[in-house]
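Lecture 7, part 2: worked example. A protein chain together with zinc ion.
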Amino acid sequence: MTQIEKTPLRDDVISLEDGLLGIVCTACRRHSFPQRLLCLHCGSDQVENVSLPEQGRVCSWTVVRQAPEHLKTPYTLVTVDFEDGNRVLGAAEGNVRIGSPVTVELYPKTVDESGNSQWWYRFREVEEFNE
Ligand SMILES: [Zn+2]
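Predicted complex, written out as structure tokens:
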């Protein structure tokens, strides 16, 4: 019997333990998402891997009604602002409003050819922002 493995769809974007992954630049102190070798802002290679906060706030949202065949429509697409300065694009479950707090939720999105589940992220509105 084979064990079904849980893996991130992209391991530079999420960690199953730590959620969304990014970098902080030790030269300019700014954050970027996802993990990368060079700072998005100043081009420095002096970067450290970090996790993003667990919650952010909705900056904008829209409902997608037309998409490539493998995506089920309609779905809600949001941009979320995090306290570390990152603005992240992603799908949202349930209703969202501009300015509302959302949490990062990991879920099994696809299954690879070996039968392992590949996990991805989405956002879900929460009632209160955890400071
Ligand atoms: Zn930088």
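The beta strands are 6-8, 14-15, 19-25, 31-32, 47-51, 55-64, 75-81, 87-93, 101-111, 117-125. The two ends are 45 Å apart (CA to CA). Keep this in mind for problem set question 3.
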